[in-house]
């Protein structure tokens, strides 16, 4: 069976990107023809490309460069994506010496197709079956299949060293593991430090004077403070019961979130500083007013000053405390 080249769709998911030189293959095609047809599957739903290439891209490419209009094909009808991929792997394993990174990408593609058909891989019988089956297909040990899959998580600099041949892929995995452990160690240390800090819970009161004062704050400060107040119960629970572990975050995401958290903390610290300065000013003003109280020759207060009875002062202080959320801080037991 022969098919026009312009009717064959070449997917972008093919593994082998570097075809090397096709000159010897083109000479072979010119002298003996294409003795081994390429592998395709029918795609009748695609009106522009009724066939999709499964295996034989080098032969397809060489024929295209020679200007051939059509090439011989073997038509397969795989039941699903996994079977189509396995057909391509089986055909190509006889001709292609895949690099570790190409094997890594190939295993990842098969994992995705496998999970679409059978469900997510976990530490169970299905997982063992996947690694054994993929190992037989790629003529590798199941442990090597697991290593190839781990190569997808290498940092770019390690990938480039493996690709160039400067670094053996197992050594790259070892270095990546050391990097990951270092990140986890720093994360655990930070988590322990956060856990050691005792957070104080604020029981914000409901009296109207407090909320009226909040309402006097200019925007956007008023909205931010109200949001902080509403979030306080969740924040208290998060810091005491559910420490976040950011080890799964990407480098870029981690940097963005770190800067975001730093900006928020700086803003809240500035608010706290302003509030504390105002409290100090008021305390100093009260002290100065007390020093200016007229005193008679005997050293007692002037009779013109009528100090409040102790009971009256206590009642006033109790009222102020009820209107002040900061006095509701729960101290240590």
Describe, in plain words, how this protein is organized in 3D.
The protein has 333 residues and is of the alpha/beta class. It has a domain at 1-97: Conserved hypothetical protein from pyrococcus furiosus pfu- 392566-001, ParB domain (Alpha-Beta Complex), CATH 3.90.1530.10. 59% of the residues lie in helices and 7% in strands. The chain has twelve helices and five strands. It has a five-stranded mixed β-sheet. A hairpin with an 8-residue loop joins strand 3 (38-42) and strand 4 (51-55). The radius of gyration is 37 Å and the shape is elongated. The chain starts with a strand and ends in a 10-residue tail after the last helix. 12% of the residues are buried.
């Amino acid at each position: 069976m022969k098919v026009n080249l312009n009717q064959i769709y070449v997917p972008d998911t093919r593994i082998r990107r570097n075809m090397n030189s096709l000159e010897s293959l083109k000479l072979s095609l010119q002298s003996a023809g294409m003795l081994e047809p390429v592998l395709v599957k029918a795609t009748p739903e695609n009106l522009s490309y009724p066939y999709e290439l499964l295996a034989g891209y080098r032969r397809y490419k060489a024929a295209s460069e020679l200007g051939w209009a059509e090439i011989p094909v073997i038509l397969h009808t795989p039941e699903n994506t996994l079977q189509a991929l396995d057909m391509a792997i089986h055909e190509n394993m006889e001709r292609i010496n895949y690099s570790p990174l190409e094997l890594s990408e190939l295993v990842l593609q098969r994992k995705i197709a496998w999970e679409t058909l059978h469900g997510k891989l976990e530490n169970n019988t299905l997982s063992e079956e996947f690694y054994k089956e993929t190992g037989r297909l790629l003529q590798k040990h199941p442990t090597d299949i697991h290593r190839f899959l781990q190569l997808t998580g290498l940092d770019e600099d390690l990938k480039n060293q493996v690709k160039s041949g400067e670094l053996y892929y197992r050594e790259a995995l070892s270095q990546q593991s050391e990097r990951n452990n270092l990140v986890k160690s720093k994360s655990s240390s930070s988590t322990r430090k956060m856990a050691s800090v005792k957070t104080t819970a604020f029981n914000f009161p409901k009296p109207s004077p407090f909320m009226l004062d909040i309402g006097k704050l200019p925007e956007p400060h008023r909205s931010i403070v109200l949001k902080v107040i509403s979030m306080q119960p969740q924040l208290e629970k998060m810091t005491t019961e559910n420490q976040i572990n950011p080890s799964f975050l990407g480098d870029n995401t981690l940097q963005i979130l770190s800067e975001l958290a730093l900006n928020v903390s700086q803003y809240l610290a500035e608010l706290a500083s302003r509030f504390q300065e105002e409290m100090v000013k008021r305390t100093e003003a009260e002290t100065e007013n007390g020093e200016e109280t007229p005193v008679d020759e005997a050293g007692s207060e002037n009779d013109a000053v009528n100090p409040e009875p102790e009971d009256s002062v206590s009642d006033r202080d109790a009222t102020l405390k009820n209107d002040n959320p900061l006095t509701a801080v729960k101290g240590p037991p």
